[in-house]
Request: fold
Amino acid sequence: MDFTFTPEQEMLRDTVTEFLAARYHLESSRAAARVGAGWQPEIWRKLAEEVGILGASLPESVGGIGGGAVETMIIAEALGGALVVEPYIDTVVVGGGLLQRAGGKRAEELLSGIAAGEVVTAFAALEPQAGYDFTRVDTTARRDGDDWVLDGTKIVVTTAPIATDLLVTARLESGEIALFTVPFEVNNPPAGLTAHTYRTIDERPAADLTFAGLRLPADALLLDNAADAVTATVDEAIAAVCAEAVGAMRKVLGDTVEYTKQRQQFGVPIASFQALQHRMVDMLLELEQAVAATYLVTLKLDAEPTERAKAVAAAKATIGRAARRIGQEGVQLHGAMGMTEELAIGHFFKRLTAVQNEYGSTDFHTARYAALTRP
Reply:
């Protein structure tokens, strides 16, 4: 396989990396996440208008550039290296993927809004009894005249507190899983919808949503047979999360190596201790395996469903193991400084810990891979 980026892809990587290095500051993003709005809307607009990455993987017909999975991987890795909290994966990858598969006038309007930086979507799919199964849906949608009425509960809906639109799965009376769009404002939710908001351990905005007789117009239905679209989009999201984790792990390893060159013990840098060198080499090996798994799953996203699912499960299990090893080693090699707010390492550790369970834990995807490859 050829893993060489095209000149255009290299330019995309360099443009995003340089923008983040010059304009995205960890202190500002952490303050926004902890005590502010949960994100930086001005950064989101710049990502759309100045850098153009919100439309990089969207069709040209909605204001995008028409890129694909490799462009998404490049962008996600760069965002991970800067610990960006703005909802690129939730909105562009998940929202964009679902809306492209749904099609129709309303979906195209939302896609155009995403590319312009005006629309932020949150995917309300997981339910209390579903585990990591996005197609186990107990929320119901029934017709009442020309309207739809939704009842049910969704949990850990990341990005919901800052979203302009929710993408909600519900089961129709026919038994099919359908996809609905719900205009949303967390401080003024529509009648029949309540939101309990909170921050996740990696300081991202999330909410648990309860639908109790939420009425929606007929055109709120985007797709009436959405199971395959949900599965394919979640697999794309997992690939993007893997790429984001690779960017974060590169940063953790680089910071750890640099710290051990500066930190002295017994009059010499601790990087000169062979035992610590071995630990950092182990971190590098984990990172290289994670990179390889991420490249593989990115190239397999267009494969037939079973082949794609095997690559996704293998990549997520590999990333989960690497994120745990690199995150823990990075903190330990920094000593007590590793868990302070002043250093970036502690914030990256929180994100890598969350990654291990996002869209399915390491154990879940290990079992998924075993089931898919069982004779």
